[in-house]
Amino acid sequence: MPFQVTIKPSNRSFSANEGETVLEAAMRNGITLPYGCRNGACGSCKGKVLEGQVDYGQYAAHILPDFEKKYGFALFCQAKPLTDLTIEAREISAAGEVQIKKMPCRVQRIHRAAVDVAVLYLSLPANERLQFLAGQYLEIIMRDGKRRAYSMANPPEDDVHIELHVRNMANGAFTDFVFNKMKERDILRFEGPLGTFFLREDSDKPIIFLASGTGFAPLKSIAEHAFHIGVQRQMVMYWGARCKSELYMLDLPMQWQAERDNFSFIPVLSDPLPEDDWSGRTGFVHRAVMQDFPDLSGYQVYACGAPVMVEAAHKDFTSLCALPDDEFYSDAFTPSDGAKLG
Q1: pLDDT tens for residues 274-322?
Q2: Contact assessment for residue 227 and residue 158, using Cβ atoms and an 8 Å cutoff
Q3: Could you tell me the pTM of the whole model?
Q4: Structural domain of residue 11, as residue ranges?
Q5: Is 242 helix (H, G, I), strand (E, B) or coil?
Q6: Could you say which of 53, 70, 91 is where a domain stops?
Q7: Which helix (H) or strand (E) holds 316?
């Protein structure tokens, strides 16, 4: 017998089959709830169980601590209904309108943007395009069936090639292939688009973009899409790295700043090298935001990168800078277990 799940505050309902997660069931019924990694590692899908019981599934303990479970919170990408449910969750209408596909692609070009960052340009079969929202990601399907997730760095309007920014990860099966074996013209398979990290175009609030490392990739897509559609909101991008070479596309956001009155760029290095000859901002990138914007009550924040940065930014921005919790949009790049790698 399927279970009935009712979402508050919309009162929309859907059925969940035995063994299906709340997120899987919602997606099967054409309802898109927020999600990111889909393996309990990022917290994007966190919501509240108001009535009923769930099997919480497997997840990272720090993403759903016991005290939150006592207050009814669950990760809907992992939680499986054991009874009929009433849940409290935000619904994402725009992402639900995009078709998820499994497709082949060809490696058109490999560009070494840094010693440990490769930019891949993937071409689709003739007459095929991938419809997606700026900021979404896809999952590369490896030959053994394992998946690795990467955000698309190109905006939806520039879809001749799919652009991925791949950082070389120690003991990473896919990244080892990219950096040591991949050749132009190789064929890959992927599924996408996925995720609910995308620009909320219905808002007029100014935007803070916050990236660490290859978390720049989806923010590049979002920013270029915003430029394309003529967004007039003020946008400030902070990009953090350890040293200057890790800001592997530094010239691009500097160019955006020079060309646009409503865009500013602040690079931040946590551990600059002597040869960097760095006179810019230093320290933790999210702390630079707090120094410049102690009151974030009227802003939207789009944060992407290492989980420790995303988690710290969410905690500090909402508790110390008055950022509304529902105006913090994030995508954390987590290790190679099927979650986001960047």
Answers
A1: 999 999 999 999 999 999 999 999 999 999 999 999 999 999 999 999 9
A2: no
A3: 0.82
A4: 3-91
A5: coil
A6: 91
A7: helix 307-320
